[in-house]
Write a structure and sequence with these properties.
Structural class: alpha+beta
Shape: globular
Largest sheet: 8 strands, antiparallel
Distance between the termini: 18 Å
Radius of gyration: 28 Å
Helix content: 25-40%
Number of helices: 16
C-alpha cells in the first residue's frame, strides 16, 4: 500500500447517469451458462470514458435500506459499470452474503477483453492477492486447534532452521499473525510473470531471513515473508505440502471447487482465470506467479469466496470450532502488546484486521497483485459479507479508489451510522497546538532497511504540517476526488476526516508525538518520526546541490580544454596538481554515472516487480561495486585536489570551489552508506 493514497470513488446509479448526460449505460442482467446473473459486460474505452471521473458527494444517510438481493443487484448495476468505465478497469466480480446465503453475485466487464469473455461470478477466477492470507491464517488456526501450534511459543520450535532473537526475544505465531514480529519488508522474488518462476516454499523461506528492525510485539509492520513462514510451519506441523493442505482442509470442506493456491493453475482451472490488465486500454499481461505463495497466490471465483465468507460469519462452520473462530475474529486485548496499538484506531486480529465503519464491528482484508485488486469485509454482528475484486489497476490506480469507496457506500446504504449528537471538537487553540506537534517527516513501519531498498525511505518520507487555518495537514492523504483531506480533532490527538469515515490518531510520550497512523493502515503500519540524520528535509537539497556541483565540475573539464585549445592557453597546474585536477573531474563523472545507474535500476524494478529477482543480481552487484569505486574514489580525489589547491596558493575562487567539490562528493557517499546502497548482500 502506498503511503500516498486516494481513498475512494463516489459515482453511481441514476444520479451519475444524469450528471454525465446519459453517458453511463445501466447494466442489463442476462444469465450466464451457470444460471447465475451477471452484469452486462461494459468494456471501458477511451471514447466512452469522460475526461475525468465525476465524483459525487455521498447522499445523507436517511435510514438503512433493506439489504436484499433485489436492492443490492439494482444498486450494483447502477454503480459498477460507470465505475469500471470511468477508471479504465476491465472487469470485476462482487458477491454479498447474508445469514448464510448468497444474496448477490454479480460480474461486470470482461474477464478477457480480446475474446469478449464476460465475468461470471460462478466460474471466473480472480486473484485476490493478500486476501489469500485469510486462508493461510485459517490453516494455522486449524493447527492451533489440533494442538500442533502454540500461538505464544518460540516459532523456532516448528522450524528446521533458526530465526535469531532480537534483544533476547523470539518470534511467536501470534506476532506473525498480527504483523508485529518486527521483520523488515522482503521485496526480492515477490511476483514474476515467468510461469516456471515459482521457488519451493521451504527454499524461499530458508534462503534469507529479513532483518528484524523492531522488537517483537511493539510495532505493526506488514510482512509477506512472515506469512509465508506461517505457511511453512503448517507444512511442518501437518506433514503435508501447503497446497495439498488447504485443498484438503479448507477448500474441500467448503466445496470451493474453483479455489487453488497452485501455480501455475491445474489444467482444469486454467481456462477459467480472468486475464490481468494494467488498464483495460492496455495489453493483457501473463498469469502472475506469487512466489511467497501462502501470502497471496490464491485464485478463486466470487461464489467460492462467498462460501469462505459464510464459513467465517457462521463461527468457522466447516473449518474451525466456534471458540477457535472467536479467538481469530476478536483477539483479546490482553494478548496484544498495547504498545503496538494506536487507540482508538482499527487493529489487527489474528490474521483479519478491523475495518470498522459506522459503529459496526467489521473485519476483513485487502489484497493486491500487479493487476488484481480486492477487498473482503465481514460485518460480524449483522452476518453480512462483502467481496469485490478487479482484474485491472485502472487509470491512476483507480481500482484502489473504487474498492474502498464501494465498501463505504455499501455500509452507508445498508448500515448507516446511528444519528448522534453533535460531535464535540477540541477547541481551536488546542487543536492548532496539537497540529504543530504533529508537524515533521515520518517513516512508515512497513519498509526495507538493511539493503538498497532502504533508499526508498529517503524519497518516501511522509510529510505532516499545518494548513492555513491551523489544522492538521497530511498532503499524501487524499479524498476520492483527489483533494487533500480535511481533519477535525474530536478528542485530544484523535482526528476525524471531515465529511468522511477515516480517523487519524497519535501517541504522545513525555509531551511529544512519537507515532501516528490512520484507520485504513493502522492495523499493519504506523508512522514514526524520521531521525535527523536520515531526514529528507536537508538531504534532498544537499543531493540536488551535490549533483549540480559535480555536474559543473565535470563539464568544466571539456569546456576549459576547448578554451585552452581555442586560445592556445596552457593548463596552469602541473604534475600532481594536474593529476588531482583530472582525477576530481573523473570522480565527478563516475559519481553521476553511478547515481544515474541506481535511478534507472530502481525505476525499472519498482515499475515491474519481476525485475526484483535473482536475474538482476549481476546488475545489482555491478552497481554496488561501481558505486563503491565511484563514491570513495570521488571523495579521495576531491580531498587530494583540495589539499593541493590550498597548498599551492591558488586564488580564492579555486580554493572555495575545491572545498565545495569535497562536500559534494561526500553527499552521495553519505547517502549510500546511510541507506545501505553498498550493503554486501543481494538479498532484500
Amino acid at each position: 500500500m502506498n503511503r500516498g493514497r486516494t481513498k475512494g470513488f463516489l459515482a453511481a446509479g441514476l444520479i451519475a447517469a444524469i450528471a454525465t448526460g446519459g453517458a453511463m449505460v445501466t447494466a442489463q442482467v442476462p444469465e450466464t451458462k451457470s444460471g447465475v446473473p451477471v452484469g452486462k459486460p461494459v468494456l471501458p474505452t477511451d471514447s466512452a470514458r469522460p475526461a475525468s471521473p465525476i465524483v459525487l458527494p455521498p447522499a445523507p444517510a436517511a435510514g438503512a435500506r433493506d439489504l436484499n438481493g433485489t436492492d443490492v443487484d439494482a444498486w450494483l448495476d447502477g454503480y459498477m459499470p460507470f465505475a469500471l468505465r470511468s477508471n479504465d478497469i476491465a472487469g470485476a466480480v462482487v458477491t454479498v452474503v447474508k445469514d448464510g446465503q448468497v444474496i448477490a453475485a454479480r460480474g461486470y466487464g470482461y474477464a478477457d477483453i480480446a475474446h469478449r469473455k464476460p465475468v461470471d461470478p460462478a466460474t471466473t477466477l480472480f486473484r485476490p492477492g493478500s486476501v489469500s492470507k485469510l486462508v493461510t491464517w485459517t490453516a494455522v488456526m486449524q493447527q492451533v486447534e489440533a494442538g500442533k501450534i502454540d500461538l505464544d511459543a518460540d516459532i523456532n520450535t516448528y522450524l528446521d532452521f533458526k530465526i535469531p532473537p532480537r534483544n533476547g526475544k523470539p518470534v511467536t505465531m501470534r506476532q506473525i499473525m498480527t504483523h508485529t514480529a518486527g521483520f523488515e519488508e522482503a521485496m526480492k522474488d515477490l511476483i514474476t510473470d515467468k510461469q516456471d518462476g515459482l521457488i519451493p516454499l521451504g527454499a524461499y523461506i530458508k534462503r534469507w531471513t529479513p532483518t528484524r528492525i523492531f522488537d517483537p510485539g511493539t510495532t505493526p509492520a506488514y510482512s509477506n515473508w512472515a506469512t509465508s513462514l506461517a505457511g511453512y510451519v503448517v507444512e511442518r506441523t501437518s506433514g503435508m505440502a501447503f497446497d495439498d493442505y488447504v485443498d484438503a482442509h479448507v477448500f474441500k470442506p467448503l466445496d470451493m471447487k474453483t479455489a487453488s493456491f497452485r501455480q501455475p493453475l491445474p489444467a482444469s482451472l486454467k481456462p477459467l482465470v480472468a486475464t490481468g490488465y494494467p488498464r483495460a486500454s492496455k495489453d493483457a499481461e501473463p498469469f502472475e506467479i506469487v512466489i511467497p505463495a501462502p501470502a497471496g497466490s490464491l485464485s478463486a471465483s466470487g461464489l467460492d469466496m462467498a462460501k469462505f465468507m459464510i464459513a467465517h460469519l457462521q463461527n468457522g462452520k466447516g473449518l474451525l470450532k466456534p471458540e477457535t473462530a472467536a479467538m481469530m475474529h476478536n483477539s483479546p486485548l490482553d494478548k496484544v502488546n498495547p504498545v503496538s496499538l494506536v487507540p482508538p484506531l482499527n487493529r489487527m486480529e489474528l490474521g483479519f484486521f478491523e475495518t470498522n465503519i459506522n459503529g459496526r464491528e467489521v473485519i476483513g482484508h485487502l489484497g493486491d497483485t500487479g493487476n488484481f485488486h480486492t477487498s473482503l469485509h465481514l460485518f460480524m454482528q449483522e452476518g453480512v459479507g462483502f467481496y469485490v475484486s478487479f482484474n485491472s489497476a485502472g487509470k491512476e490506480g483507480g481500482a484502489h479508489t473504487v474498492r474502498q469507496q464501494l465498501f463505504q457506500d455499501f455500509a452507508d446504504r445498508y448500515f448507516p451510522a446511528a444519528p448522534a449528537a453533535k460531535v464535540a471538537k477540541v477547541d481551536a487553540k488546542t487543536a492548532a497546538e496539537h497540529a504543530k506537534m504533529m508537524a515533521g517527516l515520518w517513516d512508515g513501519s512497513r519498509r526495507g532497511h538493511s539493503n538498497f531498498v532502504d533508499v526508498l525511505n529517503l524519497f518516501g518520507q511522509t510529510e505532516v504540517g499545518v494548513d492555513k487555518d491551523g489544522g492538521l495537514l497530511v498532503p499524501s492523504l487524499k479524498t476520492a476526488g483527489g483533494g487533500i483531506e480535511k481533519w477535525d480533532e474530536v478528542e485530544p490527538f484523535v482526528w476525524h476526516e471531515r465529511g468522511g469515515h477515516d480517523r487519524l490518531a497519535a501517541q504522545v510520550v513525555d509531551g511529544k508525538v512519537v507515532r501516528w497512523s490512520f484507520d485504513l493502515v493502522a492495523p499493519f503500519t504506523v508512522f514514526d518520526r524520521v531521525s535527523a540524520w536520515r531526514s529528507s528535509a536537508w538531504l534532498m537539497p544537499a543531493i540536488y546541490a551535490s549533483l549540480a556541483i559535480l555536474l559543473l565540475t565535470f563539464l568544466s573539464w571539456p569546456v576549459t580544454a576547448f578554451t585552452r585549445w581555442r586560445f592556445a592557453a596552457p593548463l596552469k597546474v602541473e604534475g600532481k596538481a594536474r593529476m588531482a585536477y583530472r582525477a576530481t573531474r573523473l570522480g565527478a563523472l563516475l559519481t553521476l554515472a553511478a547515481a544515474g545507474g541506481w535511478t534507472a535500476f530502481i525505476i525499472s524494478a519498482f515499475s515491474n516487480l519481476s525485475v526484483l529477482s535473482a536475474a538482476s543480481d549481476g546488475i545489482l552487484w555491478f552497481l554496488k561495486g561501481a558505486s563503491a569505486l565511484a563514491f570513495f574514489g570521488a571523495v579521495a580525489a576531491a580531498v587530494w585536489n583540495a589539499v593541493l589547491t590550498w597548498r599551492d596558493g591558488r586564488r580564492w575562487p579555486a580554493k572555495t570551489w575545491s572545498v565545495l567539490v569535497v562536500l559534494a562528493a561526500l553527499v552521495p557517499l553519505y547517502v549510500a552508506l546511510t541507506f545501505h546502497l553498498l550493503a554486501l548482500s543481494a538479498m532484500y
